[in-house]
């Protein structure tokens, strides 16, 4: 069967990675979580004191970009590839609210974006990938055969993220999560370099009122149609 590129963009916590992972598994494609890459660079900046609650030393981060090695290693136990920063498994650390609060600032730095987009293009050069992020259909793979743009109300998204973090044992308040979701929407859509926008040829999927099964069926059918075209 012909292999295609599937780009899934959209707002934070719209369930992009869940659907992208399921779709990749079902199609036998590689799944790439580009948000994890921006989160890893943010964690690196935090660990080195380049970003704190009151300052962001962009220049220091830019001058250390070459020393950042990002990778993914498949873990059969969990069924997906986990994030590795300089050979250390950071899958858990990158999902904390702390990282979420800094990541949009780090993702607005053009030099960071250039480095990550280059890696993403390379991973997807042979097609057969499902990649999720904010600029996949617009910048990374503007020629992707299938582009999806995921949306859901801010409340629905905050509730989902809240449930996820609580299940992982993090102590967070719903209000703090909602604030993070709203702030990130604003920062991701208003940054100068590659802001989050729906590609003209992307199909919008609002999943506020869809069950996981309904959503999967809808998207799987779209993928099969695109593959058979
Ligand atoms: O998908 P996520 O919530 O894990 O992404 C974390 C942040 O990274 C998000 O707020 C914006 C940024 N990001 C980006 O700018 N471009 C991408 N392709 C993916 C994520």
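Q: What amino acid sequence fits the structure above?
A:
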């Amino acid at each position: 069967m012909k292999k295609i590129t599937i780009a899934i963009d959209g707002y934070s916590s719209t369930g992009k990675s869940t659907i992208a992972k399921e779709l990749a598994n079902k199609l036998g494609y590689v799944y790439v979580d580009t948000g994890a890459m921006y989160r890893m660079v943010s964690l690196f900046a935090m660990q080195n004191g380049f970003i704190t609650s009151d300052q962001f030393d962009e220049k220091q981060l830019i001058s250390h970009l070459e020393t950042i090695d990002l990778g993914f290693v498949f873990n059969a136990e969990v069924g997906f590839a986990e994030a590795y920063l300089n050979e250390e498994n950071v899958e858990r650390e990158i999902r904390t609210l702390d990282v979420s609060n800094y990541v949009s600032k780090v993702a607005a730095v053009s030099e960071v974006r250039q480095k990550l987009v280059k890696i993403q293009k390379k991973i997807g050069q042979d097609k057969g990938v499902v990649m999720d992020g904010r600029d996949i259909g617009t910048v990374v793979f503007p020629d992707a055969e299938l582009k999806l743009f995921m949306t859901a109300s801010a409340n629905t998204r905050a509730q989902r993220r809240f449930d996820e973090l609580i299940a992982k044992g993090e102590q967070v308040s719903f209000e703090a999560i909602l604030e993070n979701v709203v702030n990130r929407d604003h920062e991701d859509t208003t940054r100068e370099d590659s802001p989050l926008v729906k590609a003209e040829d992307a199909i919008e999927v609002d999943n506020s009122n869809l069950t996981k099964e309904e959503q999967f069926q809808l998207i799987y059918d779209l993928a099969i149609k695109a593959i058979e075209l």
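Q: And what stands out in the fold?
A: Residues 38 and 107 are 6 Å apart (CA to CA).
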